[in-house]
Amino acid sequence: MSVLSDAIESFLLQLMDNPRHEVEVKRGELAQRFGCAPSQINYVLSTRFTPAHGYLIQSQRGGGGYIRIIRIPQDDGDAMLSEAMEHCLEPIGEADARAMVQNLLRCGFITGREASVMASVLTDSHLKRISSDADSLRSDLFIRMLAALRIQRKKENDHGTL
């Protein structure tokens, strides 16, 4: 199943390689192209094109329905941090947190050292010793980290160091 998921992801990424960094597709047509059920398309979208990975998904159901995948611009740090914070309003799992940290690192918002520290604090092995609701605690901690990043980014912009 991962080979099919990889192929769908690769296809969508190729379509997104345009100046707007977005693509609009029909779920049924995409499923037909890959000879799979629409639920497989949903799986790829929900696991590989998430805010944690730097993407927004907009969809409209119905006969004329579509799925629009938008890559959050890497140069728009405020938008990226806002989307990440919004994603953390719900409990998040370790895999999503790890993906979000990697996305921040890839976009240059944090250093490798900061990424290591953040990732170590957000692990299940650490959080489950503190709380029975590790995902909610992880969300709260991550929001605080993102808020600190936003404040630091503003300070750097105000002082012309960014």
Question: Your description of this structure?
Answer:
- The protein is mostly helical and 162 residues long.
- 61% of the residues lie in helices and 10% in strands.
- It is built from 8 helices and 3 strands.
- The protein has helices at residues 2-15, 27-34, 38-48, 77-87, 94-106, 112-121, 124-130, 134-158, and strands at 22-25, 55-60, 66-71.
- It has a 3-stranded antiparallel sheet with strand order 1-3-2.
- Helix 4 (77-87) runs antiparallel to helix 8.
- It is globular.
**How are helices and strands ordered from N to C?**
HEHHEEHHHHH
Q: Name the shape in a single word.
A: globular
Tally of strands: 3
Spans of at least 5 consecutive residues with low confidence = none
Report the portion of residues in β strands. Answer: 5-15%
- Which strand order do you get reading across the main beta sheet? 1-3-2
Q: Estimate the helix proportion, in percent.
A: 55-70%
N-to-C span = 43 Å
Main sheet record: 3 strands, antiparallel
Number of helices: 8
Structural class: mainly alpha
Q: Look at the structure and give the mean pLDDT.
A: 84
Radius of gyration: 17 Å
